[in-house]
Amino acid sequence: MRFPDGFVFGCATASYQIEGAAYEDGKGLSVWDMFCRKGGTVWQGQNGDVACDHYHRYREDVGIMKQIGLKGYRFSLSWPRIIPEGTGAVNEAGLGFYDRLVDELLAAGVEPFVTLFHWDYPYELYCRGGWLNPSSPDWFADYARVVVERLSDRVRHWMTLNEPQCFIGLGHYTGKHAPGDQRGLAEVLRAAHHSLLAHGKAVQVIRAHAKTKSVIGFAPVGAPRMPASDDPADIEAARQAMFAVNGQDLWANAFWMDPVFLGQYPPDALSHFGSLMPKIGGSDLATIAQPLDFFGVNTYSGSFVKAGADGKPESVGLPLGHPITAFKWWVTPEALYWGPRFFYERYRLPVIITENGMSDTDWVGLDGGVHDATRVDYLHRHLLQLARAMQDGVDVRGYFLWTLMDNFEWAEGVKERFGIVYTDFVTQQRVLKDSAYWYKEVIATRGEALGEPR
Ligand code: IFM
Fold first, then answer.
1. Ligand 1 atom closest to residue 355's alpha carbon, by position in its atom list
2. CA of 413 to the centre of ligand 1 (A)
3. pLDDT exceeds cutoff 80 at 258
4. What is the pLDDT of the chain when averaged over all its residues?
């Protein structure tokens, strides 16, 4: 199978995970700068102060993207690098960095896909209440305007928020991520609502101020539920489970996606969370549900479901010894079939996989290469399932592999290596792994190198 002309094979990264230069050129503090300094928060007390030093080495990194033949590069902007206090004065040096990066990408023939926010929230705004402050959606919209006015003559593809499930849920509920808060569910739901409003307002800003026709999306986590068999009853059970809201956490797909794509919170979210739900202003849902151009989704793994005796969804465990990544995430390639299929069915927008990949314990071999056969197999299986979804009629426009190079994996520090390029964090030397050469071949043949979907 050949992927369609114009299908974007890319890689994704995020500012705090690769840039470093945490205290340079007028950048303001982010919640991640402060969280890492707290102690006991990140593996071995590591931080993203230097990370991959991409801020200084971006030319070399774009050269690597060109060598691999990437069609698109998804990266995020550091809000406090651009507006150190979160609102107000703009830091020209910070904005200039992204300006040069965009130029470099375009010169290399790599299309920039910009994510406005991938977790490095301005610390100054956190001190003013952060996502709990009712003004937070406007702060985000103001920041979006600064960026759009500067970059939209060259950037056409935009994503607003990356994985609100994580920066709200892990950041404000479990406290595992920055800012490290453990708040009650009512406050967390209020912060979630503000983040969705921020998304909607940013879309309005892009549409109103972009200098070229924009293609806009959102990049939530998509956690697929997959039928345990081809029995239509199991398929229906998986579909129901995929969009149900029933846990005491923030992982439910529909909680985040329905407001954005359908203009309403799912009815079971309202009944399930009841009085914990925030007050929803009269025009809030209309603001949140701005028309989007694609359904971006980050998917790494899924879980199986069957129809129970009463027809209701029942979880099905995986067999003993089922494959698992270094991060201890189950390897379930069918997630890239059922996820896109169910999401497309419900939200009717072209799908872009905005992240997919796996962590492993890679190191440089005696021969100087990095032989990550397991990652190649993971990617191969996932791309074949995505191709199968496309053959079954799902409109998929792109695939962004997470990630270009090993980087700072949040609370796990540099322990979890997700890259197709190996980063030596001492010398900052980059080494293309076998998976990078494999991906290059996949891109060059527009997927033919994968063989037929199976
Ligand atoms: O590294 C993260 C990324 O920042 C968001 N999505 C999941 C990746 C792997 O954990």
1. 6
2. 12
3. yes
4. 98
User: How far is residue 209's CA from residue 394's CA, in Å, rounded to a whole number?
Assistant: 32
Q: What pLDDT is recorded for position 453?
A: 76
Active site annotation includes 163: yes
CATH architecture of the domain 8-450 equals Alpha-Beta Barrel (3.20)
- Residue ranges of domains in the chain: 8-450
Local structure of 314: helix, strand or coil = strand
DSSP string, 159-182: EEEE-HIIIIIIHHTS-SSTT---
Alpha carbon nearest to ligand 1 atom 1, residue: 409
55 CA to centre of own chain: 20
Examine the pLDDT at 108 and tell me if it is beyond 90: yes
Over residues 73-97, the pLDDT tens digits come to: 999 999 999 999 999 999 999 999 9
Of 355, 412, 416, 441, which residue is the catalytic one? 355
**Which ligand 1 atom minimizes the distance to the CA of 407?**
1
Distance from C-alpha of 260 to C-alpha of 285, rounded to nearest angstrom: 8
Q: Are strands 313-316 and 421-423 parallel, antiparallel or unpaired?
A: unpaired
Give residue-wise pLDDT tens across range 393-439: 999 999 999 999 999 999 999 999 999 999 999 999 999 999 999 99
Ligand 1 in contact with 120 (CB < 6 A)? no
Gap between the Cα atoms of 337 and 382, Å rounded = 8
443 SS3 class: helix
Q: Give the separation between CA 388 and CA 384, rounded to whole angstroms.
A: 6
pLDDT, one tens digit per residue, over 140-165 is: 999 999 999 999 999 999 999 999 99
Nearest to 73 by CA among 451, 447, 427, 443: 443
Which residue CA neighbors atom 10 of ligand 1 most closely? 409
